Amino acid sequence: MNQHLDSREGVEGYAFLLKKCCPHDSTQYPFRGYLCSTKQNPWEIPPKTQAVNITAIIDIPNISQLRSSLRHVKMTSAMSSAMDHLLARYPPGYVEILGSVSIQIIYILFGLVIEAFVRPSYKSSTTPKMLVDSMRNHVVATGIHVAYVFFNNGKSVLTRTFSSSSSNPSSSLSPSFEFPSLFEMTTHLIMGLLLRDIIFWTIHRAWHLPILYKTIHAKHHEVVHPGEHHILTISYMSVVDFVFLYGFPVVMVAKTIEMNLVTTLVFAFFSAAGEQVKLVFGDEGHDAHHLVCSEGEEGKGEGGGKVGNFGAYGFMDWVLGTDGSGDDSAGKGKKGE
To answer: What is the pTM of this model?
Structure first.
């Protein structure tokens, strides 16, 4: 009989035999399945089974996507392991200093590359002393960071807690550094740049009050035409000016929105490198700001008009009307007005 099962006649003959011995209660003979079902005609031959495309039901990524995801996981795991190794040997504050110094070195190298290969030729008015004073500010700011960490037993100053498991004191797992997700980093960077402009505008505006201008901010305005100076003279100012105008906003933003260390370092680089890019490709607001201030606290300045353009990115100046647009009061205002 097995020889005839492949034909329709063979299947019908086999069904006839089952009819003689198969009770209608198919639950007692589940192995007879389809033919003994009381809900269907037990003698109807089932239709030919059609192939099912599993990929239409289950979204299976292609091999390249799997390999890319695997490489990302391996890279993140390697970086997390490296960070865990550092944190196992050194307090978080010193790891933070290492990251900060690394970013400053990258920033300086980035500026030198732009100065040498990207920036159009110009007649420089920068003196060696101006470059030395600019680099000194980075050294002094780093020294302040080191002193804070040293006298606070290795406590970090810029960022939130390093360990992902530290929020659960009962956890028996060893702390592990957790990298931010792409969404978290992007969101925090956008928020950070906006907050930095607010803080930068506020401090810069205060520096132009007559009581503070001469002692803190006047040195920076020795640069009359920023476009005629070396890219690193962005940092040419007094130490107090540099720490509060460039260091303090990064710290405040990082602590306000609880940035991850990695996000903080990226944010610090973007904040500093953005100033370099604006200098190379032109920043009319910043140029006008220096021109107005070029003759001292009481001077009218080459550019005329009231002092404005206090922000880093122009958002706060646009909101508060200090972007200089429509200003026809040439030479009439003092700094700070």
So the answer is: 0.70
